[in-house]
Amino acid sequence: xxxxxxxxxxxxxxxxxxxxxxxxxxxxxxxxxxxxxxxxxxxxxxxxxxxxxxxxxxxxxxxxxxxxxxxxxxxxxxxxxxxxxxxxxxxxxxxxxxxxxxxxxxxxxxxxxxxxxxxxxxxxxxxxxxxxxxxxxxxxxxxxxxxxxxxxxxxxxxxxxxxxxxxxxxxxxxxxxxxxxxxxxxxxxxxxxxxxxxxxxxxxxxxxxxxxxxxxxxxxxxxxxxxxxxxxxxxxxxxxxxxxxxxxxxxxxxxxxxxxxxxxxxxxxxxxxxxxxxxxxxxxxxxxxxxxxxxxxxxxxxxxxxxxxxxxxxxxxxxxxxxxxxxxxxxxxxxxxxxxxxxxxx
Length: 346
Fold this sequence. Notes:
Layout lengths: L3 E7 L6 H8 L5 E3 L6 H5 L16 H11 L4 H14 L5 H5 L7 H21 L3 E7 L1 H8 L4 E9 L2 H9 L20 H21 L4 E5 H6 L1 H11 L12 E2 L2 E4 L15 E4 L6 H4 L2 H18 L31 H6 L3
Parallel strand pairs: 1-3, 1-4, 2-3, 4-5
Antiparallel strand pairs: 6-7, 7-8
């Protein structure tokens, strides 16, 4: 299939996708762009910070991308992108998106056309041949996979759901909070985290089996143990050339990251220089026993399927939560499904 190549990171937030996309973005000819799905809904309207440290409106890369794709990020363009996503690429649309017999709706055709223009503009501005999009939403990824001008590969980044649930309960500050806004990231209770983790993983499995999209799964725990080797293996499964020489070397448990233009998601997108790669297993000792039991029971079939232990022992602190992907207080990491799962399904 011809067209711009996109590696779409799918799954649930707080699973390490920010760090995964940052490392992939260091490869020659690859670029990471954060969570593109949030550009029109939050990043541009609220002029949030780009990963480079500039406000979105002041970032030369995103300014040029907007000019090439739409002659600028005007309010009409942003409203149109938001309405197309709402009409064609929400969680409730996934069954139709998985059906090869259905004729794409006009909204879906327009959505694919619009995002093809964005991806192609990113490729031209950055001089990249592979774009890493950490938008996470399975339905959004499947919607874009059918675009004639996009060669999309799906990488499911998954993490132990108990570590994910524990991360969602933590108090995390928003470094970019504006005056009058909450300075704390969005939090959700364990049972909702477990339910949403399971739902999104089942959706990713459905796409891998029925969606006709080249797919692979990357466990976060494997990634932090061997970031270069695990990414090279995942890329090979996706049919993409990537070698150990293409990625930054890991020395003394650290990997050096340069600046990026990632949008939305984890404050880790602002970090540059040496970044420590260590698992955060504090949940095993600090997570309340009842919460741990609830998450384990709700996710048990998938725990078995992914090879996670069902019984854990407290091991103490094993490092900071480097790979989680916190959202802002008003929305969750995978904001595409906030209303769909956390509140009600449209």
